[in-house]
């Protein structure tokens, strides 16, 4: 690393430091507390990010409802004492919260700083005037009011659930979110880089300063630009600089290459402030006929929608937990993420930049008209403009963001009020970023109450959604309505297509209905209570159950893959999430929509996408092979790079199958016979892959597998340990649902347990959990000391297992 770059990193890290450790927390859990704290208040010490709701018990009577995960909100208090060095008394000190859910109010040393209703957007307060310096203590108090429920259609979590930072700067410094970097012209030979920087002068006199911006590729200096300015006292000044990068290395989903711009402010030849901005150089457009074009290459967006919770960890942000989710999705072939339906944690966007995802950054789930009684609509008039501006300023340098969404399924989309609001939001968005198109998730953009086949969606027979027809949007965002996709160019001849939300297929991992080729719509209608279903609130893991507004996974993808003008899709959803347990209500408490379950275990349809969305050679055969003798079982196979698959039961062929037309799987209907199910895929008569599924005997032992056996001793890093229940021969026992107990030795702790069962009411924060379909997950977090972490799993009647994780 060059000396210059090393100095830059050191000073940047000094400017912004973590403020997460050693908070005190109190939850007002009774009316006696009456929205107050005092000398008798009982506090416990913890680190943030923190979600208090995930620590509670599932409650059928929770005011959040089953849509909110049946977990309670409430009113919480956080406080922390801290010292500020005497030498910082001449500097500016601010505190930054990346997100507090919700209605946060903050005091420092008794001085009220402000309130922020929106739980998903970051905010900053300057605290310089109120601080004590040197040996004197300071106290910060944060009140978080998530007591009015319901205020969300999904599980929100409660508390300081994202990171907190202390920022210390010179009085002359780059403003918070003060850079805006664009690449107006990009070719293989050269890229122009435009750098807009907002400088803030909090001195009482004007200053003459030098602003130098250096662009690095990793540790190597690429180019720099310098400019002298004079800035008046207590003034903000925006500086425009331009640079050129020769032979730029372009950002793409396959190779997400990043550059770093380091802005230095100097007074009298002394560097007094440094600010680092990561960005990517890429050229893209959404084309009416060719879909999404990235760096001159047509790229189909193969995306998923994601809520913000992290399964058993709740809504408390952890960078490794987000990274694991993205790794699992990337392995499936996902190249796009929609931040449904709110600004995400900054760490998600940083990871999408580094890992190569096409992000739709979404602002709102509602505007003025509420979806739940106490939601953000109550705060809309006073806060929507500030919240949107802050999101744009915070996020607009991210290479991974390719479109802004100003709303999701907004009720006002159907009237003139919605058009006026959309115009306002569009104007704000384009004021702060003109480089990305604007969309909204509309449900649907066209009238669905017509016969698409008969009418062929001729213009005269189509009723256009007022928002879609307003001309405000740069992309027509389709939520569902897959039957209309093929007619997009007729209905919207001037505006490109993006499927903002698709599918809504439903599955319980490891559960299979007897007959797999019957499509079921659960519930019958979105506005009717679901009657019926399966025992234990299960849903078949064959791709055969959909919501009435959606489709199976195969149905929508078949359409999207077929046409160039269909830019791509964001499937609802990549992972299961807490709350919204469609089609069921209580006792279900988490969703069935995910391609991956709440624990991070893929459902079978994951491999359909993997066979379609990746270049990896795939042969996935299911279900398990533990049934009653003679029972008829449907066996499916997802495969690619082969002409056929042949299936054998105990060495005897039961037939070859090949995909016909636009088929995405093959199927056999055969009687169960204990033993070995074997599938062989072939290409031109040659074996491509072989897969076996064996009938498991009685559960006998536990097996532990860590996603990473070495983690950082930083109090944040995680190891996700999969627990498999096996028979004596090492075969997964697919029907095992034993309760498993966990213990951990060493400087660390168990922070989450989960099986992916949407009906489980066991705490995610306990030391035991019941397996689903032979699998369970335990999450181990490091402490602040290096050494061995020894995790042991035990269950009655099973041989225990131990695994060692090294923290260093």
What is this entry, summarized?
Belongs to the glycosyl hydrolase 2 family. The chain is mainly β and about 800 residues long. It is built from nine helices and 46 strands.
Short key terms for the protein model shown above:
808 residues; mainly beta; six-stranded antiparallel beta sheet; 9 helices
What Rg do the Cα atoms give?
Answer: 27 Å
Query: What form results from the Cα inertia axes?
Result: globular
Please count the helical segments.
9
What fraction, in percent, of the residue positions are helical? 10-25%
How many strands appear in the DSSP assignment?
A: 46
Would you kindly provide a written description of the structure presented here, covering whatever features stand out?
The protein has 808 residues and is mainly beta. It has 9 helices and 46 strands. It has an 8-stranded parallel β-barrel with strand order 21-22-23-24-25-26-27-30. The chain has a 6-stranded antiparallel sheet with strand order 3-2-4-9-6-7, with no helix packed on it. The two termini are 23 Å apart.
